[in-house]
Amino acid sequence: MSRRSCRSRWVEASIGIGPRRETLLRHELEKVDSLAAGTNWPDAEIADGILKVTPLTNAVPKEAEALMRQAYALLPHVKVTDLLLEVDRWTRFTDDFTHLKNQEPGKRTAPCC
Question: Rounded to a whole number, what is the distance in angstroms from the first to the last CA of the chain?
Answer without folding.
Answer: 29
